[in-house]
Design goal:
Helicase, Ruva Protein, domain 3, alpha/beta, 10 strands, five-stranded parallel sheet, Rossmann fold, three-stranded mixed sheet, Zinc Finger, Delta Prime, domain 3
């Protein structure tokens, strides 16, 4: 005999075999015992919680000739007939039969009396997948059903079902299976299958199934198929294509401790081992949730678990901001053709968010070296060795100087020209050299331009630090697109609004500005502020600035 999957082999045979849905089972059994049978039922709940199984049990039980205890007997003539020929129990998958014609066919057949049974039972799975027209066609049948017909509608997305359908059904909400009941069921299956699986592995299977009995039994089926007698937790995670909590904790620590090399190696490993990056995002969100709960509810977790979560010193504001960033990544990553690069950009983004107070202070020299920011005072020589003195200014001062010079040299017609070709950055998303900075630039826009300088505007202030850390690479990419050696700098959206407003004010007051040579500057002599910008960007039509 061919092998039968465990979830089919151990599917509940009657109401007494069902786990986790005590209330639903009790009401349905009582309705059968008291002969209070409705013409339409709606079973709503997560996948793998027993909706279809209970629907089949109910269909057999209402047709049983000896169902006084609320279960079908299995011995009467009707039960034996249905075991051989269940033609009067019709299962329909609405995901693949969701059109008007399919429902019209049902309407034409419901008037026919059952072939062998008392009731003709239609079980429509994933009913939320029906089209609007199909729902309208079904509505007429639900309004005036023949006495011998029962509809059981099953769904995982009840909010997609029209209220006109809901109001004509008895609704039952299925819940996720309790972890202890699930664990006991898995132990029972292992005993029946004569397989030795450790309790730790079974509890991990229970946890990963998230209340879905079918998912848990399927995963157990895979575990039993492994030749290894000593199955590890890592093997269980690999079977599901997921990452262990231990690895997710290590990944979050790399963010909190600014250990970029550790995080990048983990990301490479996620990709090479075929992990779903969106699942990693979900796991990070769960970990942040657990950290927040451990910080605020002392008795929520066991002491050992709580101790692990409390090793993270994250304020609620930082957790909130990280959650926002991860949710944004989750929505963007499904649209990306290069998920790894997008994930890496957001990883750096998270590092800057957590370490924003110390990041630049600890890395000014590194950033300066990356960008070759080397300011020489050519008017002085060191007396001792007759060489130029090298002076490196901080990044904020560097930005202010470049912003000033952007406005001094800017030209509105040139801005229109560069923006016309800006979409060419999309061509470099799949480029191994420039993909990261290309994705970064696509999240901003050019707001000031000349044949020498470009000023970028970003909605999110954390991207400013990422931009400043990659200036030389950005400039090389822009040369590939425009064939011009641009000098670039960036501002936040709030800064840009302030710059425009100050420009308008200074223009009206006839205040003029001067270009500041980047090779002749020291921090103590730099008095340039965001207000000190020049007036050539918008031409004479100042009032039309948006």
């Amino acid at each position: 005999m061919s092998y039968i999957a465990l979830y089919r082999k151990y599917r509940p045979k009657n109401f007494d075999d069902v786990i986790g849905q005590k209330v639903v089972v009790e009401i349905l059994k009582n309705s059968i015992i008291n002969n209070h049978i409705s013409h339409a039922y709606l079973f709503n709940g997560p996948r793998g919680t027993g909706k279809t199984s209970i629907a089949k049990i109910f269909a057999k039980t209402v047709n049983c000739l000896d169902n006084s205890n609320g279960n079908y007997c299995g011995n009467c003539e009707m039960c034996k007939n249905l075991e051989v020929n269940d033609v009067d129990i019709i299962e329909i998958d609405a995901a693949s039969n969701n059109g008007v014609e399919e429902i019209r066919e049902i309407r034409s057949k419901v008037k026919l009396v059952p072939t062998v049974a008392k009731y003709k039972v239609y079980i429509i799975d994933e009913v939320h997948m029906l089209s609007t027209g199909a729902f309208n066609a079904l509505l007429k049948t639900l309004e005036e059903p023949p006495a011998h017909v029962i509809f059981i509608l099953a769904t995982t997305d009840m909010h997609k079902i029209p209220l006109t359908i809901l109001s004509r059904c008895q609704r039952f909400d299925f819940k996720k299976i309790d972890s202890e009941e699930m664990f006991a069921k898995l132990k029972e299956i292992c005993t029946l299958e004569k397989k030795e699986i450790s309790d730790n592995v079974l509890r991990l299977i229970t946890k990963l199934s998230d209340g879905g009995c079918r998912d848990a039994i399927n995963l157990l089926d895979q575990v039993i198929s492994l030749s290894n007698d000593n199955i590890t937790e890592d093997e269980i995670y690999d079977l599901q294509g997921r990452v262990s909590e231990k690895t997710i904790i290590e990944f979050l620590k790399s963010i909190c401790d600014n250990e970029v090399d550790v995080g990048m190696k983990l990301i490479d490993n996620f990709v090479t081992t075929g992990k779903n990056l969106n699942t990693i995002v979900d796991e990070l969100l769960i970990l942040l949730r657990n950290i927040s709960l451990a910080q605020n509810i002392s008795s929520y977790f066991a002491e050992e678990e709580k101790k692990v979560y409390l090793t993270f010193d994250l304020s609620i504001d930082i957790i909130k901001e990280m959650t926002r960033i991860l949710l944004e990544l989750s929505s963007q990553i499904v649209k990306s053709n290069n998920q790894k690069n997008l994930f890496e950009i957001y990883y750096i983004y998270l590092i800057h968010t957590v370490n924003k107070d110390v990041y630049l202070d600890n890395n000014v020299d590194r950033i300066a070296n990356i960008n070759n920011v080397n300011y020489n005072d050519n008017t002085k020589n060191k007396k001792d060795n007759n060489v130029n003195e090298s002076k490196i200014i901080d990044i904020d001062s560097f930005r202010k100087v470049r912003i000033n010079n952007c406005f001094v040299t800017a030209n509105k017609e040139f801005l229109n020209k560069v923006n016309k070709d800006y979409e060419r950055i999309n061509d470099f998303i799949a480029n191994k050299v420039y993909n990261n900075v290309a994705a970064l630039l696509l999240s901003g826009k050019i707001v000031v331009a000349s044949n020498e300088y470009l000023l970028f505007d970003f909605e999110d202030k954390s991207l400013i630090q990422v931009f400043m850390s990659n200036i030389k690479k950005i400039e090389k990419l822009l040369f590939e697109i425009y064939d011009i050696n641009f000098k670039v700098v960036c501002v936040t959206n709030d800064e840009w609004i302030m710059l425009k407003n100050d420009f308008i004010s200074n223009k009206k007051n006839n205040i003029s500005y001067e270009f500041i040579p980047e090779t002749n500057i020291e921090v103590k002599e730099s008095k340039t502020s965001f207000e000190d910008v020049t007036s050539n960007i918008f031409g004479e039509d100042v009032e039309n600035i948006n």
